[in-house]
Design a protein that fits this description.
340 residues; single chain; 14 helices; mainly alpha; two-stranded antiparallel ribbon
Length: 340
């Protein structure tokens, strides 16, 4: 019976992993991955030009070698990404539970509070198609802003930074680097997601009534779907793709997110945004891709001298040591002052 249970659990685990390719809410959905090929080719041609090669040499065989460079895909850092994804998949159930428990109470409470404050909404008879678009847009904007804010705080609060450093310790970037996160950070983002969805549903429930339906493509928010289709997987890659200065004032390009991963101090704490660049501009941490003159020389990681996170043991346990060590020192100083 025990062996049968283990076998069943393992097969369920493998099925869940395989389902990521068929789930449009996951970054590695098959269509998002497929869309990186034509966009990656544009980046490759730009790379050839920067390397003083003629466009005639930008042939598909060279492109595929560039896109699937084994030095990158089999780098020790990339292998850690794959392992972290598999391990974190086992630990992810807690985050799902938080989302289910918190979202509904937040939505109901917020909707009631707004009605007490403002009275009945004048939009209760809005056509259903417009309700769907409006709800989807509210959800997208709130999610993108809270994602930016959480990311910003992960960098700015030393205690949280020790956990977020796991993501930034990647020395090469692949689409799987999106899943390179410490379980503590994943827990924080699950809480953020539950709160954000609760607020979006609460506001929309008050405005439009209980009939809410998200405008979706393959089950994903239509705005998120478009974002992922437009090269989201190139954000964590060696393929430099910029949207140009004008577009990048509104939307974060793959190149801008690669700048965010740069190990040079002058690039630190820039381009926190996920889809929209407006939050970075508001918080004065925006940097266009045009600021980088030699993108092929960009290197990734926490810093060029960093020697942490060299093993899975360090990746999972060192953040606790560094984070709580950082808290203990100020407490000791405070105790000593009180004793004096």
């Amino acid at each position: 019976m025990t062996l049968e249970l283990i076998t069943t659990s393992f097969l369920t685990y493998l099925t869940d992993i395989a389902s990521y390719l068929a789930n449009a809410n996951q970054r590695v959905f098959w269509l998002y991955l497929l869309s990186t090929i034509p966009l990656g080719y544009i980046g490759y041609r730009q790379y050839c030009i920067r390397k003083a090669k003629s466009q005639n040499k930008a042939q598909p065989s060279g492109f595929l070698s560039y896109l699937f460079n084994p030095v990158i895909w089999f780098h020790p850092s990339a292998r850690h990404d794959y392992a972290i994804f598999l391990i974190n998949k086992v630990l992810k159930l807690t985050g799902l539970t938080i989302s289910l428990v918190l979202m509904a109470p937040i939505a109901i409470s917020l909707s009631g509070d707004i009605e007490l404050l403002l009275g009945k909404s004048a939009l209760l008879n809005t056509p259903l198609w417009l309700v769907g678009i409006s709800f989807t847009f509210i959800l997208f904007i709130l999610d993108d802003f809270t994602r930016f804010l959480a990311h910003y705080l992960l960098h700015k609060i030393p205690f949280l930074w020790e956990f977020h450093k796991v993501h930034h310790s990647a020395k090469v970037l692949t689409p799987m680097t999106i899943y390179r996160s410490h379980p503590v950070e994943s827990l924080l983002f699950a809480t953020r997601m539950a709160g954000t969805q609760g607020i979006a549903v609460g506001i929309s429930y008050y405005l439009f009534g209980p009939t809410l339906e998200m405008s979706a493509i393959f089950g994903a928010n239509v705005f998120v779907f478009v974002f992922n289709l437009m090269g989201s997987n190139l954000r964590h890659s060696h393929v430099w793709l910029s949207w140009g200065d004008k577009a990048e004032k509104l939307f974060i390009s793959p190149a801008q997110h690669q700048i965010h991963h740069s190990n040079l101090p002058k690039h630190f704490d820039t381009n926190f945004g996920s889809a929209l660049a407006i939050w970075d501009r508001m918080f004065h941490c925006y940097l266009p891709a045009s600021a980088i003159h030699n993108p092929h020389e960009l290197a990734f990681g926490i810093s060029r001298k960093n020697t942490e996170h060299q093993s899975l043991v360090e990746i999972y346990f060192m953040p606790f040591v560094l984070a709580f060590g950082g808290l203990i020192k100020p407490l000791r100083r405070l105790i000593k002052r009180k004793q004096v």
